[in-house]
Each structure stands twice: as C-alpha cells, then as structure tokens.
UniProtKB/TrEMBL annotation:
This is Cytochrome P450-like protein. Its cofactor is heme. It comes from Euroglyphus maynei. Belongs to the cytochrome P450 family. It is found in: Endoplasmic reticulum membrane.
Amino acid sequence: MLKPWLNEGLLTSGSKKWRSRRKMLTPAFHFNILEQFLPIMNEQAYILSRMIQDRQTKATENYIDVVPLITNATLDVISETAMGVKIESQFDKNRDYVDAVSRLEILFHKQVHFEIHINNRFINRVSDTIMKRMVLPWLQYNFIFFNFFTEGRKHRQDINLVHQFTMNVIKKRKGEIQDQKNRNLDLNANEYSRRL
C-alpha cells in the first residue's frame, strides 16, 4: 500500500536493494554532515517554541495538542535540510503540500501501526479509508482502490501533489547547480584569458 507513494525506496525495497541503498545513505548521516544543519534545526526549534507559547497563551483548556506543531516543525527541518527548500509549514504556508503530506503520513502510520489518532483533523476520512481497505479485501488492490473509489482518487491526488512538489524542488536544485557550474566556467575562462 506504500508503493504508490514511495515507489521502490528504502522503506519498500527488498533486502538486496535495501542493503545497497542503505550503504549509499550511511555517509549522509555522519555526525560531521549533520552538524552543518544545526542552524536550521535551531531556527525551526525556536519557531516551534514560539508556536507552543502562542498556543498555550490562547488555550482555553489546561493542555494543548503539540503533535501538529511538532509535525510541522519536523517537515520544515526535513524539507530545508534534505531538499534545500523552506516550506514554512509552521507559518501555515504551502498548505496544499503540507496537508497532502499529513494525509499520506497519517495513512502510512495507520497502515503500519494500526493506531488511532483522535486529535488529527484528517482522522475521520483516513481511518474510514483504512478500515474499508482492511475489512474489504478487494480494496487492498491498488487498481480497484485508486480507480473506483473517491478515497482512492483523493489519495492519488495527494500522492501526485507531493510527487509534483518534489520534482519541482529537484528541477530547481538542478537549475541552481547548473547555474553555479556555468558561473564557475565563466570565472575559469576569464582567469585563463587574463593569464594569456
């Protein structure tokens, strides 16, 4: 059920492919590499603490639900460190993308752990969808689920939105890298012509 969203990735691949991909990723999580992201993590943690304080002062109850706040902070950290893009989900920006990721994350979490998260605003639709897919065996087939059911079509839209956003980020980063290479080539050409 995760393959439409994650394709053949680290979470969904078989053991042989998983081992080779894991070996490629291990250096990316070295302490020295992660240390360069501390300013981003600190900035997002500061924003999170301000958001919690704001919610706390406005709260009518003795408690606040921090799960959505932490989820948004996590998404901001991951998007900026992994993709180099500021989502600013803690400030309610890029709402379509954030909501789609939230729905997909909830669906993933439900499928893996079968837990109920009552305080999430998407819970009713997602839990109904999960229950249908668990109870009705024919809905476990992606073809039937995505083509013949409204929940499946909405899920497909969420997947497409997340994939489209990711592809736009990749395209933008490729463009930035190519621009940097072109600037470096121009600088090198100018340096070489000055020497002659």
